[in-house]
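Prompt: Have a read of the protein record below and flag anything odd:
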Amino acid sequence: MIYLDYAATTPMSDKAMEVYAKVAKQYFGNTSSLHDQGSSAKQIKEASAKAIANAINANTKEIHFTSGASESNFLAIQALLDGCKRDGKHIITSKIEHASVKDVFEKLETQGYKISWLGVNKDGQIELKDLKKIIQNDTVLVSIQHLNSEIGTFQPIKEIGSFLRAHDILFHTDAVQSFGKFDLNVHDLNIDALSISAHKIYGPKGMGAVWLNPNIEWRPFFDDIHQLKKLKSGTDNVSAMAAFATATKEAEEKMKDEYDRISNLSKAFISGLKKLNHELVVEGSSAHRSPYIQGIRFPGMEGQFFMLECNQAGLAISTGSACQVGSDLPNRTMKALGRTDEEAREFVRFSFGNNVKEDDLGKIIDKIDIILERHFNKVRRNT
């Protein structure tokens, strides 16, 4: 099986796995305990937070560990809203956010908040002018993802953040797909909260983190007078924290080389597909898209069927965000781009990672060609 679904999850690296096992076995103490085992565990937690902080140009105390991206998004958004001293119930987000963000805001709508769902242009990008048009006097929060998980389009976070900061509006970004692959500086981005996850960068599942701007007021969802300014209560998963830090350091060390490799791989992949005798649509901005993610449609072939055929042929791909799998609804991101229901159902995603090699491309493209040829020959025979 050739795995092409790295945007969904990645395998743990050998080094992260080794660190996870070692810490779980030797440093199992509770970080809140005052004995030596607890102190050792606390030191590992702090060292892990420092590694994460260094990767985004932040301070160690600004990093708050969570159980993953979905919890990071929920806790970050709630912390900003609960700590906000401004009166207001208006929130802005985009129509192509990850389900974990969308679900939070749909819940907040039932609690009296007014949510504006910002559209995107044909390339999947938010236009700053459109955001400016829907800002209201009672707008308290904006949440826009840094990099879309389905079409790989970057959003102009820095420019949006600069505008929002001038208007004293809080700003959260989901950076799960960009962390560890691109340079991130939380101060340059003009944001107040950032969500990240370990399992997207060869770290363990069930581990994520939130960066919170120390210059703004925030409040944990669960108040605990004994754990002041701790975003999440409960016993710390120190072994996963250490493995997350290890994966982060590994990602930083190879970031440029891996970006160049994946860029060349991605270009060759698209070039190879375009040479086939089948129509191809690459979704998203060509100028502002991550090479790690390619959102594609083969007009006339349903994405779910294509994915199953790929699985039979030994290719692991997806029909979009893993959190939407199982839904009969057309792909949300495609609908936001203005695609018809039929076009939205044609969408598939290829996402690349460290186990995909240039030598694999010929085999991958040949398998896709066979699948498409078989399908469209059958369609022609039946018409």
Q: What stands out?
A: The chain has a mean pLDDT of 93. The first strand starts at residue 2 and ends at 3.
